[in-house]
Amino acid sequence: MAQLFHPSMNTFSRMTIFGAVFLLGGALWLASVWSRSNYVTEVGVVRDQPVPFSHVHHVAGLGIDCRYCHTSVETSASAGMPSTATCMNCHAHIWKQSPLLEPVRASYRTGESLEWTRVHDLPDFVYFNHSVHVAAGVGCVSCHGRVDKMPLMWREHSLHMDWCLECHRNPEPHRRPREEVFNLAWERPTKEPTTPGSHAAKPADHAEAVAGHAQTDDIHLAALEIAAAIPPGYDSDVARQVTILTSCSTCHR
Amino acid sequence: MTPPDHVATQAAAHSSVQPPDAPPPVLEPGHTLSTVTDKISSIVLTAPPPRSWYFGLAISFALVMLLMWTITQLLWRGVGIWGINIPVGWGFDIVNFVWWIGIGHAGTLISAILLLLRQTWRTSINRFAEAMTLFAVACAGLYPLLHMGRPWFFYWLIPYPNTMGLWPQFRSPLVWDVFAVSTYASVSLLFWYVGLIPDLATLRDRSRHRLGRKVYGMLAMGWRGSALHWHRYETAYLLLAGLATPLVISVHTVVSFDFAVGQVPGWHTTIFPPYFVAGAIFSGFAMVVTLAVPLRAVYGLQDFITERHLDNMAKIMLATGWIVAYGYAMEAFLSWYSGSPPEEYVLVNRMFGPYRYQYWALLACNIAVPQLMWSRTVRRTGWMLFIVSILINVGMWQERYIIVVTSLHRDFLPSSWGMYHGTKWDWSMFAGTIGLFLALLFVFLRLLPMISIFEMRTLVEEEKHVHGGHSDTSDPRGPAP
């Protein structure tokens, strides 16, 4: 009987059988890398904006506070985008002939809002509240990065769920005194004991901090009520809070 | 490619005498190595398919189209087109999943456990029973995937480092199910394929078409039938049988945990794992009989699938049927013995509630009908056993329906009681998976030998020893195919 296959088929079939393992493994690795790549997460990607607004100039150069433009960041879910009138507070007087600012003036004349391209856009099934994070002492910089060093706005973090959970599972290292929330350059004093892993050692301080915030924030108060209902066994405040922070329904309501 | 003539003449010469106390043969007398190979391989290679093959494939293919249409509707409109809603969130989808997975179990039992127990009669039914397992698992797998609503996220069930920073809930039996069923599917596939390799080589050597030779040759992986090949084959096959054996028990045990781990009255019971496994084997053998009886009639395989096979399968059904009956009895006893009103009510509700007809139908099909198999005539008459097996299949489907639906529709809170009925889409999906199962089976019958050729040739030789008296020193499988 004639040969069905050329002898090279032996090598070829071995290669394909054993190669398939590597091919499959490689494909999975590629998918994993791709899903975390900047191409997908848009980290560091500058989006086109109607006006090339520079945070470097306004924040670092002029020293304008975040809250001058993002007025509702302490009181509501959305940080708020400034109305054109806010821009015109200054730009009615300075740079009033600049062609770059023509869209701003046009918006002011016609009453049509400027349509900024959203850089930090969470999926609609995620409930996110700025005020709760501010009240809990999470600095702007923790999520948005050094905005005062961004000539044009980009995304500093992936906004992936594992990135959210990294903090929600262990919030202490990411918290700061309430008055330093808007200080982008603030760094944790090295002597302070609340470094990662040691937060459980000082429950009393933590309870004070939580209670302090609770007075200023209704939503947080509600969270504390839930925490109070958690049965014994979760008797550390930190554990209680982490239980709330990692509950599915905290973010997916 | 055919065995030497002297083997054939010897076999023909002394196959007729049978000692009176020997069990009936697993291969009818008069067969030689070459007649076995010719008969089985010709179904694939030379004989035109019987008209009933075209007829059956046409009907089952039409049902596959119905399945496609149902899935399209389902993905387009969502699982709301099914009858499921609170309080009955698991309906036909889970009923059919359990039913199909259960059917698959007979294939694994026949191929693995009966191999280890050296039951030679398994030889002529193991190939298509294993194929049946694979196709049943394929049908079963469709249901939980589509039940998810967004099946394109099925890979969330698999633990892998993901951007959500989450792992599946390892404490949930639904996750164990993913492991159990996927292991089962892959081991069954491997077992089936490894068992096919020597036969694929036979087909390669006998095929008259160039394409056929190439394809079978590729699949036979260079099998030449050398002693080294056979040695490795036997080792691998035995190892796979060892691997598959615990799966017969574990898969349906894990499926039963889907219910037993929950606290719903009627589900939360420790009898479930053994009772589910027995039920699975019961329904699986019923399906093997449902397939074997028409197959042997249409393809004239009465010599290979003999009355002894039907008899043995009927006995297994009778035995597992009694285990299942014991399960029902224990369920009833414990619901009374528990002293817990919701548990007690489950039994009353099953017997006299809105689903009472299904419950009594289930008892009739699964307990009463199998008792017919005490009769030797029923066990050995194809059409009678066929009817019994169909009724058992119906009964086992009713059983899963009763377990899933009656437990959910009236649980602890009377204010949230409700009724469940399958919609036309539930039924079309069920009919569609039956079509898929049959269509795959028809294609299998046309492309691969439905009975293991080389193992049947071993039987030719063994029959000679048992029924003929002579012994032959040549390799029982004959020369390399």
Topology:
The complex is a heterodimer of chains A (253) and B (481).
Chain A: H1 8-36, H2 38-41, H3 55-61, H4 66-69, H5 84-91, H6 102-110, H7 130-135, H8 140-144, H9 161-168, H10 203-216, H11 218-229, H12 237-245, H13 248-251
Helix pairs in contact in A: 5-6, 10-11, 11-12
Chain B: H1 5-13, H2 33-45, H3 51-77, H4 92-116, H5 123-147, H6 173-206, H7 210-220, H8 227-260, H9 272-298, H10 307-337, H11 341-352, H12 356-368, H13 376-380, H14 382-409, H15 424-447, H16 453-468
Helix pairs in contact in B: 2-16, 3-15, 4-5, 4-8, 4-9, 4-14, 5-6, 5-15, 6-7, 6-8, 8-9, 9-10, 9-14, 10-11, 11-12, 12-14
Provide structural commentary:
The complex is a heterodimer of chains A (about 250) and B (about 475). By secondary structure, chain A is mainly α. Chain A has a domain of about 110 residues. About 10% of the residues of chain A have low confidence. Chain B has about 475 residues and is mainly α. The N and C termini of chain B lie close together (about 5 Å).
- Rounded to an integer in angstroms, the radius of gyration calculated over CA atoms of chain B is 24 Å
Name given to the CATH architecture of chain B: Up-down Bundle
CATH topology of chain B: Formate dehydrogenase/DMSO reductase fold
What portion of the residues of chain A fall into strands of 2 or more residues?
under 5%
Give the CA-CA distance, first to last residue of chain B. 6 Å
Helix content of chain A: 40-55%
Order of H and E elements of chain A: HHHHHHHHHHHHH
What characteristic shape of chain B results from the CA principal axes?
globular
Count of helical stretches of chain A = 13
Rounded mean pLDDT of chain B is: 88
The averaged pLDDT of chain A comes out at: 84
Number of strands of chain A: 0
Query: What structural category do the secondary elements of chain A indicate?
Result: mainly alpha
The largest sheet of chain A is:
none
Q: What gross morphology of chain A would you assign?
A: extended
